[in-house]
Design brief:
By secondary structure, the chain is an alpha+beta fold. It is built from 19 helices and 13 strands. The protein has a five-stranded antiparallel β-sheet, with helices on both faces. Helix 13 packs parallel to helix 15, helix 15 packs parallel to helix 17 and helix 17 packs across helix 19. It is globular.
Length: about 450
């Protein structure tokens, strides 16, 4: 069944400049051989994989993903999946996605998968035979396709980078996914936040530029639909504003503040006083800030723990949180913040949005809740780190790069050190120090740092 899903032999025609599917498959298969050997052999990966794929593989290796991982029963199923899917913002987009993407694509024997912003598959569309074949390799509704769960794949790449991606055959980190190709694109809300991922999957036919272009065009149309809906909602709110009752006396005056960056204990600022928070309370508050539209108990459970917490545990955690922050701060059904909460995450994003990398680095006291293993928090943590690192490396500013490489996350960042070296005069004593650091990293990683800079690894 999987073989039928994958299709025939790969064509030799290029799908991007300088790349041919046949050669790509051979090199990726060789890379898996080096991956199995481990140790120093991992240094050989850089010459065999596309740069973005190599970076994803390295994250998969460091994350402990097993390339021989077999399919298991984990995931959201049945009524729980249905409730989650119905409450998700992508649900309102499905008629549009069906019209623009699903109907025509599935007639050709390919499948369409729709995932949420964390990589969890909301639905899979296609003829029964192809959907069954996809399920046998782990592409099924309710499954988690995030990179941290199954390693390199198109949906996971989009979730991680926020950019469209295609992954072909052995480029997938898991062996059980080697017979498919996926082309995926992100859907963002009007505030620029990722809300979902669209993917076409199938055999080698998917590895064509026009397939990725189709997915991207549908994602763009979905984003425009969300924007128009937000504009219409704003107009209705403005018209109804004069009839709305004043709830100000029901809630605390002013904004609350939440600090979650760095190794210290999370803190909540209330009327000038700082209140220490437990990790779980900080996780819940941060996730509610990130989802101002509110979160159902099922959705919040998924963001807090990928072993699927039950609703009773969620209710108890929110009840204890209310005892700390006040009974009127968090409403129910869905769980939603009733007062504004300013976060250091929000401040850091604002600095990055404005291009002020110096301020962003000053604000970055460390990773978001570094001890947290909550999937939703991990995604926020990864997003900020990738954005900050990208901004630092592309700044061409020696001060910015000096600060990044001096921090714990940039200390062993070979690409950042190479970028830093490029900003320093060769006659400067600092150049020799940077060069020495790069040589140490070269020996440790077995990968040339100059090449990493050139490929933006």
């Amino acid at each position: 069944m999987v073989g039928n899903f994958a299709g025939g032999r790969p064509p030799r025609r290029g799908v991007e400049p300088g790349a041919q599917l046949g050669a790509l498959e051979v090199y990726a298969a060789q890379a898996h051989g080096y991956l199995s050997a481990g140790g120093n052999q991992l240094a050989q990966l850089a010459g065999l994989l596309r740069p973005a794929v190599l970076e994803s593989w390295m994250r998969s290796i460091h994350g402990g993903v097993d390339p021989m991982d077999v399919l298991d029963g984990r995931g959201l199923r049945g009524a729980d999946l249905q409730r989650y899917r119905d409450a998700h913002p992508v649900a309102t987009l499905m008629p549009l996605i069906d019209k623009l993407l699903v109907q025509d694509t599935t007639r050709t024997g390919l499948i369409v998968a729709v995932a949420d912003q964390f990589g969890r598959v909301l639905s899979v569309h296609g003829n029964a035979e192809q959907v069954t074949a996809a399920a046998e390799i782990g592409l099924r509704a309710g499954d988690d396709l995030s990179e941290r769960r199954i390693g390199t794949n198109a949906v996971g790449m989009v979730v991680r980078t926020g950019q469209a991606a295609w992954i072909h055959g052995p480029e997938h980190f898991l062996h059980r996914m080697h017979l498919i190709t996926g082309a995926a694109a992100p859907v963002h809300d009007p505030d620029g936040r990722l809300v979902g991922v669209l993917m076409i999957a199938g055999g080698v036919r998917v590895a064509k530029p026009e397939i990725l272009a189709l997915v991207k065009a549908t994602a763009t149309a979905a984003e425009m639909d969300l924007l128009l809906a937000a504009m219409r909602s704003g107009e209705r709110s403005a018209l109804a504003g004069h009839t709305r009752r004043d709830d100000a006396q029901s809630y605390p005056v002013g904004r609350l503040g939440l600090d979650v960056l760095g190794l210290g204990q999370p803190q909540l600022s209330v009327a000038g006083d700082r209140v220490p928070l437990s990790q779980r309370h900080a996780e819940i508050l941060l996730l509610l800030v990130e989802h101002p539209e509110g979160l159902g108990a099922d959705h919040l459970a998924l963001l807090l723990d990928d072993t699927d917490l039950d609703n009773g545990t969620i209710r108890a955690a929110v009840s204890r949180l209310r005892a700390v922050v006040g009974p009127s701060v968090v409403s129910s059904r869905p769980y939603r913040l009733c007062v504004p909460v300013a976060t250091d995450v929000e401040a850091l994003r604002a600095a990055l949005d404005s291009g002020d990398v110096h301020s962003a680095l000053r604000l970055y006291a460390g990773p978001v809740l570094p001890r947290s293993t909550a999937p939703g928090v991990i995604d926020i943590r990864d997003e900020l780190r990738v954005r900050l690192r990208t901004a630092a490396l592309s700044s061409g500013d020696s001060g910015v790069l000096r600060r990044w490489t001096a921090g714990p996350e940039g200390r062993d960042d070979a690409a950042a050190w190479a970028a830093y070296r490029a900003t320093v005069d060769r006659t400067s004593p600092m150049y020799a120090q940077i060069e020495a650091k790069i040589r140490v990293l070269d020996r440790r990683l077995g990968i040339d740092a100059t090449q990493m800079q050139r490929f933006d690894i």
